[in-house]
Amino acid sequence: MPDKKNLFLPCALLAVTLITGCSSPGDGESGKGGVDSVAESRGDAQGGVKKSRAADDSDSGRPQIRLDTTQIEEIRMYQGYLRCLKDRGVSIPSKGNKMPEADPGTLWFPGIDVAKERPEAEKACLGKKPLQPPELDPKKNSDYMDDYSKWIECDNRRGLKVNPLPDGGGWNYRAGVTQPRNADQIDKECMIEAFGGE
């Protein structure tokens, strides 16, 4: 996904802050983040959720991002959480030109780590913050590192040249390589293939 300087595991991987989902090179802030809307992931499009444990009580009622959630769906899922943060004084920008296909008035992600810099707002709004796909959580997916390796292999095989991070926490674009125009699409498809495969 991308973090603010590098591409980090897109689409929700361990996004503890407000960075969600993949972004294309130069996006700066990711909005996909990954994307969420369903109350609970059923893994329908992925053949079931692998080895996931039941969500704990603090997660009940939160929107659930799935592997196949689109970027625009994810941004819509985050609106309640972002509105809650804004109501508590966190500076939340509007979408601007970051995603022209988003609805008018769409809120964007703050340029801060809310959990660290505004923990009281994060705590108050946590029940509205979408959950990342359980397949992308090493605590819930016992095959996480194997799936992660398959993801990186798929990206590279399909022309998206990336270097994995040693802890499985994301990846960076390979230096000096021209990346394909459809890099986000390749990465999303590879993520679904690797983590959602049977």
Sum up the structure in keywords.
mainly alpha, 5 helices, disordered N terminus, two-stranded antiparallel ribbon, about 200 residues
- The computed structural class is mainly alpha
Order of helices and strands: HHHHEEH
Please count the beta strands (DSSP E, at least 2 residues each).
Answer: 2
Low-confidence stretches: 1-56
Please count the helical segments: 5
End-to-end separation in angstroms reads: 23 Å
C-alpha Rg, in Å? 16 Å
The biggest sheet amounts to:
2 strands, antiparallel
What strand order characterises the main sheet?
1-2
Residues in helices, as a percent range: 25-40%
What best-fitting shape do the alpha-carbon axes yield? Answer: globular
Quick check: average pLDDT?
76
The proportion of strand residues reads under 5%
Description:
With 198 residues, this protein is mainly alpha-helical. The protein has a domain at 144-196. 28% of the residues lie in helices and 3% in strands. It has helices at 71-87, 114-117, 119-125, 144-157, 183-196; strands spanning 162-164, 171-173. It has a two-stranded antiparallel sheet. Strand 1 and strand 2 form a beta hairpin. Helix 4 (144-157) packs antiparallel against helix 5 (183-196). The longest helix is centred in the middle third of the chain and has 17 residues, at 71-87. It is globular and about 45 Å long. 37% of the residues are buried.
